[in-house]
Amino acid sequence: MGNTYWHNLVGATLKELLEPVGIEVRVEVPVTSTPPRADLILIRRQQGRWTEAQRLLLSDGLRDLEADHILVELKITESLNEEVLSRLSMYDTLFQESAGLQRRQLQSVLIGAISPRPEFLERFAFLPVGPGGIYESKPRWGGTIRLIVLNELANEAGNAPLKCFSSRKEVEKEGIPDHQGNRVVSDLGCVWSNCSRLMEVAHARLIEQSGNGRRHTRAGGPARQGVV
């Protein structure tokens, strides 16, 4: 069986969700002015400040960030370790220099589908911040790393698109309730179609929460089916 390019699947999910509200999503982001490219996802607002409509569509751990550029390293099947943290810090530095950004304009985020061991969190001084599943560490080499643990995210509409990539079966099957109270189930055997359904329900719930009654039009037409 060939490799699964998880950053492309998650990137495509976020692109479908966020680009209609003016948030750019790119994958395989060049971290220097010349190749190679890295398996990263870049989330960047296209203009002005983050709007309420944009923040509603971001998950816990992303929603509160003020940086213009959010650089995401994604680990779906790989456990978190020192090498992962060192590499993300290197990507962070290289991307900041190549893009000509100030420190406040860039925040790097590590998203893990496999829950880290308590020893890992303790060794690298990850402390909980904000909602469940969100941690931060200030590495010895400087900067701040935000960690999002998918298994621990709350069962809320804004978290649904990322939670369908969680490693725990009970979390995958949680989904979120639709207007009839039915659960929308995610299944990694057919990631795209289930995440598309989750996003449709999440959009409706988030619009309901915002109270503005406006529906965001999703780019790209009807949901794609059967992408495995």
Oligomer: single chain
Helix-strand topology string = HEEHEHEHEEEHHEEH
As a percent range, the share of helical residues equals 25-40%
Could you tell me the number of beta strands?
Answer: 9
Q: Order of strands side by side in the largest beta sheet? A: 1-2-3-4-7-6-5
CA radius of gyration: 17 Å
Helical stretch tally: 7
Assess the beta-strand content as a share of residues.
Answer: 15-25%
Would you kindly provide a written description of the structure presented here, covering whatever features stand out?
It is a single chain. The protein is α+β, with helices and mostly antiparallel strands and 228 residues long. The protein is built from 7 helices and 9 strands, in the order αββαβαβαβββααββα. A 7-stranded mixed beta sheet has the order 1-2-3-4-7-6-5, with helices on both faces. A two-stranded antiparallel ribbon has the order 8-9. A hairpin with a 5-residue loop joins strand 8 (176-177) and strand 9 (183-184). 36% of the residues are buried.
Name a few traits of the molecule.
228 residues, alpha+beta, seven-stranded mixed β-sheet, two-stranded antiparallel ribbon, 7 helices, 9 strands, 31% helix, disordered C terminus
List the helices and strands and how they pair.
Layout: H1 6-18, E1 23-27, E2 40-45, H2 52-57, E3 69-75, H3 82-99, E4 106-112, H4 118-123, E5 127-128, E6 134-137, E7 145-149, H5 160-163, H6 169-172, E8 176-177, E9 183-184, H7 191-210
Parallel strand pairs: 3-4, 4-7
Antiparallel strand pairs: 1-2, 2-3, 5-6, 6-7, 8-9
